[in-house]
């Protein structure tokens, strides 16, 4: 959900997914974890009336799962231990909530949990907070309402306001007095989507994430007390907060590194079934492959250079820059990359291309008619 990226021509192409059955960080370690509602466990335990897979009840129950098995990681140079969220490092893709990836975070004293979207395309972490425009809960089809926690600085004993005089206050020019609470406003790429409020500090409750032990870690962080949410935040996407993972100083990974909690790095892994994990301070492995990032001077992003494209074994040399944005559901491409990929794929497809009608509400240019007995598009695949 990059708040600064703009495209002169935006075209939806396709959803990219991981094909691996396990979730591997940097290609060197991995782990399988199974919740009591997962398919492997359900096959062993003859339990009836479990939540339907993919439903809000299913993921709400998974929030309170047992700790998952940890993978091996390299320690940082100063021997700092990787950390993750207090309730574990698992992440979930929630199709009913904008197809974004979510994690359960715990903030404040007494501790409250929030189901937040993980967004590498923006920097600020914000929560719905004493809000006049926000989502308090969601009713799933045919099921009960899932109530969301709403943060309030007044009810957390570890909370404090960020004054306009603080060097963390980027919008200090909007302050009438240095002693006022620092305001913030983040406008996102999705039309009419924004979060407006003030900056506060409070405790983010983490835990060490290693093979040996789990120790609680309390990290003082700066985040947004979101009083007004608009656009997609009121219509299903990130209704209970957004966790900015960008490169700016205000992002949580940057704050954790500055406060010497852990290294200035993090890893995320998303499996094709929607379950993954996140770890802060993960340094990967000594033999991992690396891709250089092209940081922008005004606003650094996870921007990389693409030098070659291969579709169905057909390779084309085409260079362009792309931003990794976990807060965006689909892949967006400009020309000439869009035309090269889409037309090459279309030439390889064996199914009939769908002819759009005025009554269709399809956001994609390339759609195909499948037979009723098939669920996947038929196309030649060349494997290395």
TrEMBL record:
<dbReference type="InterPro" id="IPR033121">
    <property type="entry name" value="PEPTIDASE_A1"/>
</dbReference>
<feature type="active site">
    <location>
        <position position="325"/>
    </location>
</feature>
<dbReference type="GO" id="GO:0004190">
    <property type="term" value="F:aspartic-type endopeptidase activity"/>
</dbReference>
<dbReference type="InterPro" id="IPR001969">
    <property type="entry name" value="Aspartic_peptidase_AS"/>
</dbReference>
<dbReference type="InterPro" id="IPR001461">
    <property type="entry name" value="Aspartic_peptidase_A1"/>
</dbReference>
<dbReference type="InterPro" id="IPR032861">
    <property type="entry name" value="TAXi_N"/>
</dbReference>
<dbReference type="Pfam" id="PF14543">
    <property type="entry name" value="TAXi_N"/>
</dbReference>
<feature type="active site">
    <location>
        <position position="119"/>
    </location>
</feature>
<dbReference type="InterPro" id="IPR032799">
    <property type="entry name" value="TAXi_C"/>
</dbReference>
<feature type="domain" description="Peptidase A1">
    <location>
        <begin position="101"/>
        <end position="384"/>
    </location>
</feature>
<dbReference type="Pfam" id="PF14541">
    <property type="entry name" value="TAXi_C"/>
</dbReference>
<dbReference type="GO" id="GO:0006508">
    <property type="term" value="P:proteolysis"/>
</dbReference>
<dbReference type="InterPro" id="IPR021109">
    <property type="entry name" value="Peptidase_aspartic_dom_sf"/>
</dbReference>
<protein>
    <recommendedName>
        <fullName>Peptidase A1 domain-containing protein</fullName>
    </recommendedName>
</protein>
<comment type="similarity">
    <text>Belongs to the peptidase A1 family.</text>
</comment>
């Amino acid at each position: 959900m990059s708040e600064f990226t703009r495209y002169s021509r935006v075209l939806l192409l396709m959803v990219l997914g991981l094909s691996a059955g396990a979730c591997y960080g940097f290609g060197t370690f991995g782990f399988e974890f199974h919740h009591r509602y997962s398919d492997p466990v359900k096959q062993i335990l003859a339990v009836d009336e479990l939540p339907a897979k993919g439903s809000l009840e299913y993921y709400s129950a998974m929030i309170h799962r047992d700790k998952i098995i940890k993978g091996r990681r390299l320690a940082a140079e100063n021997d700092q231990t990787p950390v993750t969220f207090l309730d574990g490092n698992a992440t979930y893709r929630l199709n009913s909530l904008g197809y974004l990836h979510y994690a359960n975070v715990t903030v404040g004293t007494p501790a409250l949990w929030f189901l937040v979207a993980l967004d590498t395309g923006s920097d600020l972490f914000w929560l719905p907070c004493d809000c006049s425009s926000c989502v308090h809960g969601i009713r799933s089809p045919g099921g009960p309402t899932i109530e969301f926690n709403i943060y309030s600085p007044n009810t957390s004993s570890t909370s404090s306001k960020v004054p306009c005089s603080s060097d963390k206050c980027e919008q200090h020019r909007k302050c009438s007095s240095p002693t006022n609470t620092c305001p913030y406003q983040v406008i996102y790429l999705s039309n009419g989507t924004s979060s407006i409020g003030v900056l506060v500090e409070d405790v983010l409750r983490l835990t060490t994430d290693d093979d040996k032990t789990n120790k609680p870690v309390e990290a003082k962080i700066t985040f947004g007390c979101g009083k007004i949410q608009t656009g997609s935040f009121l219509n299903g996407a990130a209704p209970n907060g957004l966790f900015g993972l960008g490169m700016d100083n205000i992002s949580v990974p940057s704050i954790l590194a500055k406060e010497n909690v852990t290294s200035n790095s993090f890893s995320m892994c998303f499996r094709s079934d929607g379950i993954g994990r996140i770890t802060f301070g993960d340094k990967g492995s000594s033999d991992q492959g690396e891709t250089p990032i092209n940081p922008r001077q005004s606003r650094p992003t996870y921007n990389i250079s693409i030098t070659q494209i291969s579709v169905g074994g057909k390779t084309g040399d085409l260079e362009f820059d792309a931003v990794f944005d976990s807060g965006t559901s689909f892949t967006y491409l400009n020309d000439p990359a869009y035309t090269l990929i889409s037309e090459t794929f279309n030439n390889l497809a064996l199914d009939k291309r769908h002819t759009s009608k005025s009554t269709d509400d399809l956001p994609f240019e390339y759609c195909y008619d499948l037979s009723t007995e098939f669920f996947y598009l038929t196309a030649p695949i060349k494997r290395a």
